[in-house]
């Protein structure tokens, strides 16, 4: 070290201690050594001193300490500026008559070095497989995390997800939101609807022939093709008991009742609370599952032999897009169904954003994660 020789031969010479190649503390030494081979000696991690060691040496010598890095463009100007300050201060006693030296500052402290941020990690997201994946079709066939079960005539049970149905069909959206609003404090349905203070949108009245529905036809239902929930006409509301279930025969054709029950999950084989919806005898298992599959995937199997029954169930559940697609197939105008399918997916995406914004079905985080 040259400190003893400097103090012996040049006792009045100012000294500044400088640590170089600061960037090596944060560099990839393996890459640096590969670039230096074979001319230079490889750098080992023990060759790089921490900043504390430099400050300790500077404190022992009584000199200022600075760190520099040409690669990072750090500290080079600080070294020259403070070296000039130290040189001018050391000449005060020789040129004391120069007034500008009286205001000269001593070498300043160096600001800490902010190491560069590491590059963000590269995350590779595998593409979802088109066959056998966890898409809506696979979810419908294997009802993982199902929270609603439809009881059909003949003991048939169809498991589904409220989120998929509510965001694809206004009828189911109204049904599942009706369950939450009408069960609060045992209020009548008409009172709960009036308290919502939202403008009722009634743009179409669905009247089906009695021969199609049989003798079980109930009071007329006013429906809306807009995104607003259904509202019953004042005076038509009825008392929906919270614990014993809700009677739906007067609310919509095809529905009998809805209640919460402990049902065995078809996947985990464990009992959990689900919404049990009892359907009318007019709703047949095969066509009903075809309607639900459309609500999940937006796809219609045009080769089905029971397309007319599918259209009837779609009319009952107010899935007007599906009814129109069946009519196009029967009229040999299937090419028009592509636009209907596109509009279906766009409308469902908008409904999903609306539900997320309003917090509807917020308690079903697992079901939201399935989208």
Automatic annotation (TrEMBL):
The keyword Methyltransferase does not apply. Residues 146-304 form the BTB domain. It comes from Terrapene triunguis (Three-toed box turtle). GO terms for molecular function: GTP binding; GTPase activity. This is Rho-related BTB domain-containing protein 2-like. InterPro entries: BTB/POZ_dom, P-loop_NTPase, SKP1/BTB/POZ_sf, Small_GTPase, Small_GTPase_Rho. Keywords: GTP-binding, Nucleotide-binding. GO terms for biological process: small GTPase-mediated signal transduction.
